[in-house]
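cron nightly-structures :: item 1 of 1
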Amino acid sequence: MKALPKFNVRKTYEEVADYLREQIISGVYQPGTRMPSLRELGETLGVGQSTVREALSSLKTLGLITMKQGEGTFVTRHDPEEVISAFEALRPVTRQEIMELLEVRKIIESGTARLAAERRTEEELNQIEKALKEMKKALSEGDLGDAPDWKFHYAVASASHNQTLKSVMMSISEAMGRSLYASRLELYRTQGVPEELYKEHVNIYEAICAQDSKRAEEAMLYHLQGVEEKMLE
């Protein structure tokens, strides 16, 4: 196989992900191929293992690779058009875009959580709990958990029984998905933050479960304000 060029240490995970994506598209890494370990990729590309880990996480989110515990990382697909289309959808958003979206979410989702606590059915509560379990699983496996995070917030919106609120959530779904991905990549660099974010979602769920509308509203607002404050640090 052709030797991989070394990157400057200042290169970001996005550039490493871009490079590995191109390797998949060009056929260097065929479907089913086991990729080099974090250490091997880091040494070969001249970047830290944390950078490689973030790059692989973005590729996993796109469904390009799968990580098997104790076995390694494997390529799952490499159809050029499909890969490029999916990758473009997750281009990094700016900090300003994230902060503006958080402003919108604070206004909308605090009220959504209050309505969900008042109106949720058992089935809707189960959907919120299911998303929460997926978040816990992602946390235990060291994944970003941005997909179950979106599922959680959309499940809360669905439990509000307000079609307009659900439509609003769907209208910002793409921006929200990209924002969740980008913000978690940054926040997860700080030890203890992933566990803290998970606990905040648990608090929202417990308030909705107890049908405590005031506490649900406060828990959601606390969570989103906390993310906003951490992003400003």
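cron nightly-structures :: done
Residues 95-119 form the longest helix (25 residues).
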